Amino acid sequence: MGKKRTYGGIQPGVKWGPFTMRLPGVHVAISWPEAIQGAFLSLATGGALAPLMMQFFEVPFEVAWSILTIQLFWVWSQTVLFGDAYAAGWITPALPLVLVFLGGVSPGSEAVQAMIAITLVVSFLFIFFAITGLGQKFNQLVPGPLKAGIILGAAIAAFMSEINRVQTLPFTLITSWVVVLVLMFSIPFGRLPNTKAKVLMASNAMLVGFIVAGIVGTFAGELTFSIEWGFFIPQFGELLATVSPWGVGMPSWSLILSAVPISLMIYVLVFGDLLVADSLLKEASKSRQDEKVDVNHTRTHWALAIRNVGQMFTGGVLIPLHGPMWTGIQVFIMERYKSGRKALDSIYSGTISWYLLSLPLGFLLPIIGLIVPLLPVALSLTLLLTGFACAYVAMSMVNDNISRGYALAIGMITAFVSPAWGIGAGIVLYLLLIGKNGGAMEGTASKEDKQVS
């Protein structure tokens, strides 16, 4: 049982500095439906990063999985230790852009140092904007069409990454794509009566996609499962020696400077996530007058800086960086939260419970054995949904032909050349094609609230 709060008050916790710690079962009640679903979805989705780290950092699976176990702690800390009401996650729209940046350096220690450079610059931006409070002004300075181009670049890069992967697992991946896209975005499916089966599948679209992929992949001979009993032993020594500053050293100043353009892009995406999070919480508050949710962007900026730097020094660098919110899960928890206190006594009951079991289950070899064959599926679905969401968000941010063509051009340059060229060409072309007083085009900036990560 969690501590009871006064009607309309903030859920109790332990204040420390600007943060508030809330422990499950002590300060907030545990919600077991969220805990069980969250365990498997967090491990499967988080595990999607393992193949990327094996590819770019040239580390074995044991090291990649060790990084992910520590990543789970730092994700959970956003709510438990720092007091944010968001279901924390990665900066998911940045994933394709980060892959483009890492593709420009050699795999191994050079790629690790490149990721360290991004982490340092992005963390500096979080700290700078936390101290100055200029995040909103910076976000307003970036024109809507340029934001659309950055986001469209992420979409193009995401789809490009799947061209080769689908050739290795055609039946498995295409089937999982169809299932997840239908459950999440299909208009005809959405018009069907809201039966319990439909609601259950729609609210667990990723999990249903994994199950279908496992069945189809097994019958097609594309997937094989090997279950072992025992416990996973993290390879912390090798981890610190190969993917952290302790082992590979700090990047050169030239590499840090080269990470500045992509880091600015990433911050724009993060601020979009915060706007989405605020809109979700504001909408939910209309149905839950019994709880006041404490939203503080300065606190969130500090928490993001601590999470990313903490991850880098304790568990190695993480592709694609820690972010404020896992949007799909935040939406799911918000819907449960809006149904009343019997479903979720506090918003923190949902966000804290979601990651509660993922860390201990991540050390069980039988669970890992079930998840590992599905890692390519998890990665593919993550990139597919990122690309799909980024594409429709980018298109919704521009409302005239010049801006649409401009956004596509910047997106192509970002995806095919580099983020640095994308942002540089974006500024020049914006001044030449649209002008510094963008007029009606700037009205599209309000649509950035629709961004999805």
What does this structure look like?
This protein is mainly α and 453 residues long. The chain has one domain (14-169, 223-450). It is 66% helix and 2% strand. The protein contains 23 helices and four strands. It has helices at 32-47, 49-57, 61-80, 95-102, 109-132, 135-141, 144-168, 170-185, 187-191, 196-203, 205-219, 236-242, 245-248, 253-258, 260-285, 297-315, 327-338, 347-354, 358-361, 365-371, 375-396, 401-416, 419-434; strands at 14-16, 19-21, 89-90, 322-323. Strands 1-2 form a two-stranded antiparallel sheet. Strands 3-4 form a two-stranded antiparallel ribbon. A hairpin with a 2-residue loop joins β1 and β2. α5 packs antiparallel against α16. It is globular and about 55 Å long.
Q: What is the gist of this entry?
A:
It is built from 23 helices and 4 strands. It is mostly helical.
Largest sheet: 2 strands, antiparallel
Q: How does the overall form come out from the CA principal axes? A: globular
Helix content: 55-70%
Q: Give the total of beta strands.
A: 4
**Quick check: average pLDDT?**
86
Note the gap between the termini. Answer: 32 Å
Whole-number count of domains: 1
Quaternary structure type = single chain
Keywords: Membrane, Transmembrane, Transmembrane helix
Transmembrane segments: 87-105, 111-134, 146-163, 169-187, 199-220, 253-276, 346-368, 374-394, 406-433
Protein name: Xanthine/uracil/vitamin C permease
